[in-house]
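To: structure desk
From: M.T.
Subject: fold request, one chain
Message: Could you run this one when you get a chance? Sequence is below, nothing fancy, just the single chain.
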Amino acid sequence: MRLLSAVLFAVWLLAVSHAVAAQRIVTLAPHLTEWAYSLDMGDTLVGVSAYSDYPEAAKALPQVADYNGVNFRALMALSPDLVLAWEGGNKPQDISRLKQLGFSVFLSSVRTPDDIADELEALGQLVNKERRAALLASEFREQLADLREKYHRATTTPVFYYSWTSPLMTVGKDAWANQLLAVCGARTIFTDAPNDYPQVSIQEVLRRQPALLIAATRSSAQQASVFWEPHRNILDAPLITVDPDVTSRFTLRLLPALSRLCGSVSSIRQSQTASGKH
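Reply: Done. Structure tokens follow.
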């Protein structure tokens, strides 16, 4: 019994020793900025990345990173005791340099929607916010599971999801957006693409005849539809939009937006089925 108690104490001591009583945090990606606020740690943020625009308070913080990379002079001047970095978003050489300089680095590497909950919990454990993180993660997992159950279909709806028109850019099988579509019982029409974000021709889109067009844009659906007007005699698929600032970020705000997307896909699918189009 004493041995068991000693082992448990050693495990607890090891966990505590790895926790960080962070007082000065820098985030190098917008989703990590939101995570800090979600964990009620906004008052510890001293620097953020470009496009950290949610919540509103984040806009007032100094920016230490953008698409060019990390501004090390600016970051070091802030003397952070914890840096939240994004593997896949931040340059590998910048992450390596942070570690070489002796900074404590939390590395986010979200690949699937489920990873959001897992990584938020991991961050919570690191910064002594276990309870808050566990609650948020549990709620996220439950709501995500509900969406999957509600919108699962044996036959998925073929969708053309795009973020740019010049050039025309879409998503492949393993892209983040296609994982969101999968929750909604839909799929990209370019599952055979050689990479996750291929450039395609409008002729190929017309040939594949998607049941739905989804534009990731801050423009209105009416504005986005202008691009397709010359081709409406060939493709009469309806068009909807999603806000890329929400759907492309790995944050808790994703689920309400995903719920709306799934609802739209489901409504259009039912309408098309009733009319005999698909």
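Reply (cont.): The radius of gyration is 22 Å. Let me know if you need anything else for the meeting.
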